Amino acid sequence: MSTDIPSPDSADADDLGFAFRSRKGGDVEVLHRGRLASTLRGADAIDFLTEVEAGTHAEGQQLMARLTGNYKRGNERKASQHPRNRR
After folding, report:
1. Does 86 fall in a domain?
2. Which distant-in-sequence residues (6+ apart) come within 8 Å of 10 by Cβ?
3. Domain for residue 37, yes or no?
4. Residue ranges making up the domain that contains 46
5. Tell me, what's the pLDDT at 40?
6. What pLDDT is attached to residue 26?
7. Structural domain tally of the chain?
8. Dihedral angle of Cα 77, 83, 86, 87, to the nearest 10 degrees
9. What are the pLDDT tens digits along the chain (87 aa)?
10. Does 22 map to a domain?
11. Of the candidates 6, 4, 9, 17, which has an alpha carbon nearest to the alpha carbon of residue 60?
């Protein structure tokens, strides 16, 4: 019996579904689950490539999440304190 849930030890646990590709003109396209999420140009693209190459896969995934806005929005703590979510 197999499951689709990754184990915490695997690299898939750190995969948030982001990827990127460099274009001829120097642009970098950030993809989320195969769909275009953001395009970086100029100095932003160069800085991004430098950071991704220097870090780990998980750090790159977090960086791409921050760049695309698909990141924690700061309301997680408030939501856990809401009466509907208390036990």
Report:
1. no
2. none
3. yes
4. 13-70
5. 96
6. 94
7. 1
8. 180
9. 333 334 344 456 678 899 999 999 999 999 999 999 999 999 999 999 999 999 999 999 989 988 988 666 556 666 667 777 676
10. yes
11. 17
Residue-by-residue DSSP string for the chain: ---SSPPTTSGGGG--SEEEEE-TTS-EEEEETTEEEEEE-THHHHHHHHHHHHS-HHHHHHHHHHHHT-S--S-HHHHHHSGGG--
Residue 35: C-alpha distances to residues 11, 17, 32, 39, 83 (Å):
21, 10, 5, 12, 37
Quote the CA–CA distance of 7 and 30 in Å, as a whole number: 26
Q: Is 35 within a domain?
A: yes
